[in-house]
Design goal:
Elements lengths: L6 H32 L5 H25 L6 H23 L5 H23 L1
Length: 126
Amino acid sequence: MTSSTSQQELFRYLEDRFGCAQACSDCARACAVRAGLLGPEGNGEQERVRRKGVMCAEVCDATCVVLSEQNSLDEAGTRVQLEWCRSVCLETAEILDGQPGATKAAQACRACAQACADFSALLTVM
């Protein structure tokens, strides 16, 4: 943020940051629930889906923390975190697409990926 940033731009930045953090939180919750439903005793495919869900939940949770803390990372560090989250969410959504009953979790992953991409784009503008 520069000193020439207008108040309206600052409000948009804060709203988008909060929106992205909320999408990350929603995705983390959906993936954790989904992974919990599968359990570690599943077959090879179920275990792969469970592990990916756990990883996505952890990455989303970490991203939410980064976005919620003030001045925790510089802009470059925040971008890296957002890209990592976006990438993991899209991979997880693709894996969840083939699973029965996983539609809502896949949608949460895609919404989070989009929110991360949108917020990262906003950082470029500001």
